[in-house]
Write a structure and sequence with these properties.
The protein is α/β, with parallel strands linked by helices. The chain has 22 helices and 27 strands. It is about 30% helix and about 20% strand. α2 runs antiparallel to α14 and α19 packs across α20. The protein is globular and about 80 Å long.
């Protein structure tokens, strides 16, 4: 990589040559426009379909005659600095050739793309993958995504998303690492390292754009794009550290969030983007608005029009405008009129040029070829990693004792799972066959034909199965009669249920996060037949968020949380069900009892009247106090015991150790979790905070002493004045296999 001083010198030299129009052009990120088949914009056409003004069939008919406009004349005029949504090498190189060879200054384009959890080889959704609690895995899947995406011409991904999300109603909980700030920071930092590698000039390096800065996961009522109103202490303690971890890992871009914080939209928030991000954290990369977010400052009510929004957002510190055209339409005249200092414009242009120089785009603007693109996609090694990630992401939530007569699996624990190799399956639910649903939300580069469903995997492995999707019924038989027919040739029923991929992700918030009535009825029918015939019912869940499912948790015989697992969904699920892999995943998000409990999360504060049996305590009348499944929970095909927790005070904090033993009959991995509570501080503190975790393999009967170092600097919090403080006093240390089932020790700092 070019020396930093040399890059800054080249930036100054280039700025001195640029006209105001060329400077404004560097701030413009656009995507290809769809034109030629309809009289309204593509965005309006989408709204018409979603609003029901036109049918899906009419939308598809209009789209079939559309063509893409890549704004070649604007590139030649120096009015575009970046594209998003370009994901093929031929188009990327063609447009780059125009920018480099047909413009006055030859400044290369930078291509951004939503590579959220894989490019062509789609890996599990981030919420799922976080359940592996394995930074090394997160980095490897990030590296895979970068290798494929850069081969297709991508320079920058709009990821990782590290928004701490404690409200399961929010659809975008699927895109992050759950409810804990430490895990989100570790996840994000690992992805940054994976995406960017150790040298941004390499052809397979992809700049990471951390999002959404900040606190988007705390949007009010879990409703997407909604406001965020919280104390600054809470913002510093519970939300900002995950973004900071990504900056410290070297991320070269940041995306401000759609939401406002305490009345100021993030895109116009100078305190957030200049004081915190740049002055406090030393960030010198580029900032990119979210789609149309600058223009939406008018909707927020903080800007009078797009011109005013452009002035406010550029002054606040947003360098690049994604798709709203606010900068390209107004920045030049704002500078010429004296309403905006040219120095502010120059700072933004410099931030963008800096990343382009760091990626060596001026010397090597064509970083890929069609041949490299063809060779990079969906290799056997990529599929193997996707399968490994899917297996490690799955969480075994329930596993009852096997009924007599069930073929015995290979765990030796006489549980329903794992299944015997010759077990015959009765498979129910359309998601078992729907390949396209396996990718989950925000899998932009996915091809459904790449995915393997549960049925595909059964056929590949030669598993004996019968299938009922719940819809096709040419004989007119009742569902129960059809279940009875299948039962004759089955040992186990699989109920494959949950959310479609469109039911989570952006713009997919839900007021009720329960299972569908049809899913519950299917499981009821299966249980009725299964109990009569000794056939256990195993629920396999596909979903992009925690679900409120107390009835299923109580009634099903076994439950496997598979999330949306990616292209290797089917094989990975069978690996777990048949015991080729021992499940080790643990939840990174709480499963509430009811939707109305949201937000529900483990690191809550106590009130003066903590929830209890007494009437006058903090609780709901119609739900239990405890969640269905707590943060950190997950079962295995073996069992683990914790004993001899020891906490020693050190010069710098605490040394924590505990003995963990595999008390079962097969090898397994346990995720050991260490939590801390500040018992009495000058501010109310959470009942528990995750401060460390380790994933350890143990053979049957093996025990290991697991150790954690807790430096005092990690035990503090932010004061009302915004200062980080560590107070002496009593701390409780908890260690266990989840946030609920722990050993406890007390110590004085």
């Amino acid at each position: 990589m070019m020396e930093k001083n040399a890059i800054e010198r080249k930036i100054r030299e280039l700025l001195a040559k640029m006209t105001l129009e060329e400077k404004a052009g560097q701030l413009q990120q656009c995507g290809p426009s769809l034109v030629g088949a309809f009289e309204v914009s593509f965005e309006e056409l989408l709204d018409m379909m979603f609003d029901g003004r036109i049918s899906k069939e009419e939308f598809d008919r209009l789209m079939s005659g559309a063509k893409q406009d890549f704004h070649e004349d604007d590139i030649r005029a120096g009015r575009i600095g970046s594209f998003n949504g370009i994901g093929d090498a031929a188009t990327a190189n063609r447009l780059q050739k125009i920018a480099v060879e047909e413009t006055r200054l030859g400044i290369p384009l930078i291509y951004g793309y939503d590579v959220i959890h894989g490019f062509r080889t789609v890996t599990p959704i981030p919420l799922a993958e976080s359940c592996a609690w394995e930074p090394g895995l997160w980095e490897r899947t990030g590296r895979l995504a970068a290798e494929e995406a850069t081969a297709a011409g991508v320079h920058m991904t709009f990821a990782p998303m590290v928004d701490v999300a404690k409200d399961a109603r929010w659809g975008r909980v699927s895109e992050g690492a759950g409810e804990d700030v430490l895990l989100n920071g570790d996840y994000g930092a690992a992805k940054v390292r994976g995406f960017q590698g150790d040298d941004l000039t390499r052809e397979d390096a992809m700049a990471a754009c951390v999002k959404h800065f900040a606190a988007y996961g705390a949007c009010e009522a879990g409703r997407d794009y909604n406001r965020v109103d919280m104390s600054l202490q809470k913002l510093w303690d519970e939300y900002l550290p995950s973004y900071k971890a990504c900056i410290e890992a070297g991320a070269r871009a940041v995306m401000p969030a759609f939401n406002d914080i305490n009345g100021v939209p993030c895109s116009a928030n100078e305190w957030l983007l200049r004081d915190v991000l740049r002055k406090d954290w030393g960030f010198d990369g580029m900032t990119v608005s979210d789609a149309n977010a600058i223009a939406e400052c008018v909707n927020h009510g903080i800007a009078a029009d797009k011109r005013d929004a452009a002035r406010q957002c550029l002054r606040a510190g947003v360098d690049m405008d994604m798709t709203s055209n606010s900068y390209i339409e107004h920045v030049q005249e704002l500078v010429e009129s004296g309403e905006l200092e040219e120095s502010v414009l120059d700072e933004a242009v410099a931030d963008i040029l800096r990343v382009k120089f760091e990626m060596d785009l001026f010397e090597h603007p064509y970083r890929t070829s069609e041949e490299r693109e063809a060779d990079a996609m969906l290799t056997q090694e990529a599929r193997a990693l996707a399968r490994e990630a899917a297996v490690k992401s799955m969480v075994l939530l329930k596993n009852e004792d096997a009924p007599s007569g069930l073929p015995e699996g290979n765990s030796g624990n006489k549980k329903i799972l794992p299944l015997a190799p010759d077990a015959r399956l009765g498979i129910f639910g359309r998601l078992a066959a729907d390949r396209g649903q396996m990718t989950g939300a925000w899998a932009v580069g996915a091809n459904p034909d790449d995915c393997l469903s549960i049925l595909d995997a059964c056929r590949e492995r030669g598993i004996s199965y019968r299938y009922l999707d719940g819809a096709d019924n040419p004989e007119g038989l009742s569902t129960k009669k059809r279940i009875l027919e299948i039962a004759e040739e089955s040992d186990v029923f699989l109920a494959v249920i949950g959310e479609d991929k469109e039911e989570s992700g952006e713009a997919a918030s839900r007021a009720s996060i329960t299972l569908k009535d049809s899913d519950i009825q299917l499981v009821k029918d299966l249980l009725e037949v299964g109990k009569a015939q000794g056939k256990p019912v195993v629920a396999v869940l596909f979903n992009g968020r925690p679900l409120a499912m107390p009835w299923l948790a109580e009634s099903a015989d076994a439950i496997l949380e598979a999330w949306h697992p990616g292209v290797e969904a089917g094989p990975a699920i069978l690996d777990v069900l048949f015991g080729d892999a021992n499940p080790s995943g643990k939840l990174t998000t709480t499963f509430p009892y009811a939707s109305g409990q949201c937000p529900m999360y483990y690191a809550h504060m106590n009130t003066g009247r903590p929830g209890g049996k007494s009437k006058f305590t903090s609780k709901y009348l119609d739900t239990p106090l405890e969640p269905v499944y707590p943060f950190g929970f997950g079962l295995s095909y073996t069992t683990f015991a914790y004993e001899n927790l020891s906490v020693e005070k050190t010069e710098d904090g605490f040394h924590v150790s505990v003995t963990v033993k595999n008390t079962g009959s097969r090898a397994g991995e346990e995720i050991v979790q260490c939590y801390v509570q500040d018992v009495a501080g000058s501010r109310v503190r959470p009942v528990k905070e995750l401060k460390g975790y380790k994933k350890i393999p143990l053979a049957p009967g093996e025990e290991r002493r697991v150790e954690f170092e807790l430096p005092s600097e990690k035990l503090g919090f932010y004061s009302r004045e915004g200062t980080y403080v560590v107070e002496p006093g009593e701390f409780r240390i908890y260690v266990g296999g989840n946030s609920r089932d722990v050993l406890e020790a007390g110590v004085i700092l």
